[in-house]
């Protein structure tokens, strides 16, 4: 299969070169693949994910997504909004907005009218099992429920790529399983490309391929 995401020798350093966050990463990901990224703290996992998501740029090297070299684009706002759904360890929901409003928030550039946006957000909340919580605020939800809202929000613009940085890092094992089941379901039913960073072996093993990083490099890969 041809590669959907091609990462070619990317490097990123901080502190005038003293910290090599990424030290020549090469990785190819096919469309619809589910991979997990593991490795010790500080090995560069989040830095890599943020670059795939267009939140950060490498000092050297290239990232090509669907044939477009995103390292050459000056403004990645549209790329992020249209292609990427991000899920973080701490959900980053807006506390003063309801769950429904939080899911609508990323649709700011969408062509849908306001009524359709609400319908879509409502459907997404239904999908993550929170149908009755449209008007709840994040503080009124459990950690697992908040993370489900974050997943619904990540899906708002039907992104081709879902990036999750330790999505279960702040959850107990039961909620953690539910979140991973949900992500797997979305991945398998809608054939999105799913990349999950995790420190937990059981979670990592759910993916089709485990990429292990060490000192800013891909140390090994296992299918
Ligand atoms: N903005 C920054 N300024 C300076 N150093 C940074 C910055 N961002 C990341 N780093 C450094 O780059 C290295 C890689 O960081 P990164 O966050 O990618 O690690 P990680 O593998 O995600 O770790 P963890 O498992 O703890 O989340 C670390 O040494 C980190 O301190
Ligand atoms: Mg990290």
Question: How would you describe this protein?
Answer:
The chain has helices at 45-52, 77-83, 99-104, 114-127, 143-154, 173-190, 201-204, and strands spanning 3-14, 19-30, 34-38, 60-65, 68-69, 84-87, 161-165, 193-197, 209-214, 217-222. With 223 residues, it is α/β, with parallel strands linked by helices. Helix 5 runs parallel beside helix 6 (173-190). The protein is globular, with a radius of gyration of 17 Å. The mean pLDDT is 93. The chain binds adenosine-5'-triphosphate (ATP) and magnesium ion (MG). Residues 45-46, 165 line the site of magnesium ion.
On the 0-100 scale, what is the average pLDDT? 93
Hetero ligands: adenosine-5'-triphosphate, magnesium ion
Low-confidence stretches: none
The radius of gyration over CA amounts to: 17 Å
Largest sheet data: 6 strands, mixed
The number of distinct helices, counting runs of at least 4 residues, comes to 7
* Proportion of residues in helical segments: 25-40%
Total DSSP E strands: 10
Strand content: 25-35%
Observed structural traits:
223 residues; 6-stranded mixed sheet; Rossmann fold; 4-stranded antiparallel sheet; alpha/beta; binds adenosine-5'-triphosphate; binds magnesium ion
């Amino acid at each position: 299969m041809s590669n959907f995401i091609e990462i070619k020798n990317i490097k990123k350093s901080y502190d005038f070169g003293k910290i090599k966050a990424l030290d020549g990463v090469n990785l190819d990901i096919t469309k619809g693949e589910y991979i997990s990224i593991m490795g010790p703290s500080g090995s560069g996992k989040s830095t890599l994910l943020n670059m795939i998501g267009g939140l950060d740029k490498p000092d050297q090297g290239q990232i090509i997504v669907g044939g477009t070299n995103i390292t050459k684009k000056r403004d990645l706002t549209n790329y992020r909004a249209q292609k990427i759904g991000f899920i973080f360890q701490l959900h980053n929901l807006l506390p003063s907005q309801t769950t429904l409003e939080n899911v609508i928030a990323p649709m700011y550039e969408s062509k849908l009218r306001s009524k359709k946006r609400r319908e879509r957000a409502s459907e997404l909340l239904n999908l993550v099992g929170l149908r009755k919580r449209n008007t709840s605020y994040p503080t009124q939800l459990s950690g697992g429920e908040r993370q489900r809202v974050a997943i619904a929000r990540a899906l708002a613009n039907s992104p081709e790529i879902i990036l999750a940085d330790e999505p279960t890092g702040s959850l107990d094992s039961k909620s953690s399983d539910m979140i991973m089941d949900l992500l797997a379901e979305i991945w398998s039913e809608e054939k999105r490309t799913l990349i999950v960073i995790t420190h937990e072996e059981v979670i990592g093993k759910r993916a089709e391929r485990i990429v292990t990083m060490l000192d800013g490099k891909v140390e090994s890969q296992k299918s």
